Amino acid sequence: QSQVAADSDELKLKITGFNFTPILQVQWNGQGRVTQYIDSRTLKATITAADVAKPGLTQVALFDTSAGASASDPVNFLVYLPLRSNDLIYDPVRSLVYVSVSKQDANGPSLAVIDPTAEVIQRFIPLAEEPGTLAITGDSRYLYVAFPDRIHRMDLTGSTTAVDIIFSALPHLGPGSIVQSIVPLPGDGTSFAFSLGEPGSADVYAVDGMVFRPGHLYGGATCLLGTPDGVTVYADDIEALQLTSTGFSFANVQSKAVNAPEGPSCPIYSNGLVYTGSGAIINPAAPSVLGLFGAWGIVSPAPALNRVYFVGADANPDPVQTVPAKIMVFDATTLNPISSIPIPLVSNGLGARLINFGANGIAFTEVATPNGGPSIGICLIQVPAPQ
User: Fold this and answer.
1) In three state form, how does the secondary structure of the chain look?
2) Measuring CA to CA, which residue among 254, 329, 272, 269 is closest to residue 297?
3) Strands 75-80 and 3-5: what pairing?
4) pLDDT tens-place string over residues 144-182
5) How far is CA 228 from CA 86, 233, 285, 301, 307, in A?
6) CA 9, 372, 84 angle in degrees (round to 5)?
7) Are 190 and 151 in contact (CB under 8 A)?
8) Considering the entire predicted model, what is its pTM?
9) pLDDT digit string (tens) for 95-154?
10) How many C-beta atoms surround the C-beta of residue 88 within 10 A?
């Protein structure tokens, strides 16, 4: 066992290896724990409820009590928040993480509000339906929550009431259609574009003040990445979808496709550049590939820190195989690796969302169940600062 849900009961941790002796002690983040010698290949340690009260990445190691020295390299142990969820997003103004919690979770369909620095869930906001994709405006005033039949806009300042945009009258709306992505547009925060449909065949719409603009793009991009000017919306294949000044029309789609490998999740638009889960960094205005990070997984650029975070693997794993996952940190300018931290997960891409908070924090959804559906937990990890 190398991971456990936060706030669990006392844990009996089994350690296996070779040449164990009774003088060995299990250490939890450098502190000794009650250790039972079973035989030369097995130890058991008592990990208290306080040890696993909060999420994070802990180091487990063996200590030679007779020599007063370390007896093994440390191994990472993951404590995660046990939330069955569909998406998460970071609010930099309030330093909070919002999570769309599935109806399959014990808390029911809700919005979890997490303080990632204190590593605690502040509260749950009950919802009537299964929440999905989340988006937040650049000023952190409005939070958009996708439901099966609508998009819900919440005013996080509390100055206006929540409103809904309903899908029932939209053309080409199939029974399996869901909101794939939402991207706020520049302005007062009440305009946004979104993709709605089945994966790979979503339609794209735009809304102002919760009223649809005329026109839409049929069979458009699944992922909408961001907009540099309110006129152009970049899509997952680095297409530039043009918004007209007299309404809304995606009729003049300008192809911006570039020769970059596809990643396992939606690319991320940040400060004029696109970062893909395949490790590519792209200038979408040229368009051109500026370089490749040695990573494959979920990605989160952190421009203020001049870093790019990945959770996944060094390269594209075999689709039917899983490989040990790691947290990888790169210099955003040189594209050189800064650090690589193994985590006790397995992955074939981790097609989810990764966000960063504060100076060194990252959060991401745990591996989803094999047959799809919501993820089984939220990881909150403080990545050690580069030396």
Assistant:
1) CCEEECCCCCEEEEEECCCCCCCEEEEECCEEECEEEEECCEEEEEECCCCCCCCEEEEEEEEECCCCEECCCCEEEEEEECCCEEEEEEECCCCEEEEEECCCCCCCCEEEEEECCCCEEEEEEECCCCCCCEEECCCCCEEEEECCCEEEEEECCCCCCCEEEECCCCCCCCCCCEEEEEEECCCCCCEEEEEEECCCCCEEEEEECCEECCCCECCCCCCEEECCCCCEEEECCCCEEECCCCCCCCCCCECCCCCCCCCCCCCEEECCEEECCCCEEEECCCCEEEEECCCEEEEEEEHHHCEEEEEEECCCCCCCCCEEEEEEEEECCCCCEEEEEEEEEEECCCCCCEEEECCCEEEEECCECCCCCCECCEEEEECCCCC
2) 329
3) parallel
4) 999 988 999 999 999 998 999 988 777 666 677 889 999
5) 27, 7, 10, 16, 21
6) 35
7) no
8) 0.92
9) 999 999 999 999 999 999 999 999 999 999 999 999 999 999 999 999 999 998 899 999
10) 24
* Token pair listed for 246: 């007299």
